[in-house]
Amino acid sequence: MQGDHLLFRIEAPHREWDRLAGELFELGTLGIEERSGEGLLAYFTPEPGTERAVLALADPARGIRVSAATRLPPRDWERVWREGLAARRVAGLWIRPSWVPSEGMPEIQIDPAQAFGSGEHATTRLALELLLGSLERGDRVLDFGTGSGILALAVLRSGAGSAVGIDVDRVACENAASNARRNALAPAWVCGSLDGIARQASFDVAVANLLWSRLRPWLPRLAGHAKRSLVLSGYLYAERSSVARALGDLGLEMLEERQESQSGDVWCASRIVQPPAR
Predict the structure, then answer these.
(1) How many CB atoms lie within 10 A of CB 47?
(2) What span, in angstroms and rounded, lies between the C-alpha atoms of 89 and 232?
(3) To 10 degrees, the CA torsion angle through 113, 188, 95, 172?
(4) Angle 85-1-41 (CA atoms, 0-180°, nearest 5)?
(5) What is the reported pTM?
(6) Contact assessment for residue 58 and residue 96, using Cβ atoms and an 8 Å cutoff
(7) Are 166 and 194 in contact (CB under 8 A)?
(8) How high is the pLDDT of residue 113?
């Protein structure tokens, strides 16, 4: 990798680490180190606005301090970032980086790199629980905002007939495709928005693990692709009323909702069903 890197030191209570890691990946971090008793080290390529966005994560009320960026010469950030990662079991499925020994079957190997989705964030776990808990063999699944491809690959490993993963981020698309090859699974990938698939395309299940602000404009279109059910993850407890209003406007019914507290936030996910045809 060519060029200098920016290093940010983030001091925070351990309970904040997972949430901060998720936000750092959203901002495009190259990799994160966890330093016991210290906090997080996050690496970035120098881009306009990066330092301001990372410094904005500081929150004295939560005990979060972010140092000004230190410029570093090029380094093997991936080797450093890999240290300390382990296999995790979520919704009966083992998820591990390819360099970590297997803990059991069924499993998928996910190397998240710069794309969100390794099973370590509450929103991913919630989405997996709702997806795999209601999946029917042979289902066609649409994964909007696929990131590392974890949800699309998980449903294929669990018996879905097909899966399509969509993401606007080119790096995420490349990472998802790499993870698919690693698992010998073959979802279809669309690098772009929902406009990249035909409006009449129909799926048994559609899922989106995205921040509510990013998902909200696409919700009507996404719901239109879901024949049986829709799984939404990535919204906060404080946003539940906004989600409920948006679903009500579309005539959709929330069948099940789950919540998980992580790093001081309460994240939510829901399974929505299409109303009976009249």
Answers:
(1) 11
(2) 21
(3) 20
(4) 40
(5) 0.72
(6) no
(7) yes
(8) 65
Q: Is the pLDDT of residue 176 over 60?
A: yes
Distance CA 216, CA 151 (A): 20
Q: Round to whole Å and give the CA distance between 72 and 261.
A: 35
Q: How many CB atoms lie within 10 A of CB 34?
A: 15
Rounded CA-CA distance 272/27 in Å is: 29
Nearest to 59, CA basis, from 264, 266, 267, 268: 264
How far apart (Å, rounded) are the C-alpha atoms in residues 74 and 216? 38
The residue ranges of every structural domain in the chain are 5-82, 88-273
Question: What is 5-82's CATH number?
Answer: 3.30.70
Whether a cis peptide bond, with omega within 30° of 0, leads into 74 is no
If you search the block for the tokens 């669990």, which residue do you land on? 158
Q: How far apart are CA 58 and CA 195, in angstroms?
A: 36
pLDDT of 260 > 60? The answer is yes
Fold of 88-273: Rossmann fold (3.40.50)
Structure tokens at 167: 């993401």
Q: State how far the Cα of 233 lies from the Cα of 171, in Å rounded to an integer.
A: 22
Token pair in block for residue 27: 């901002």
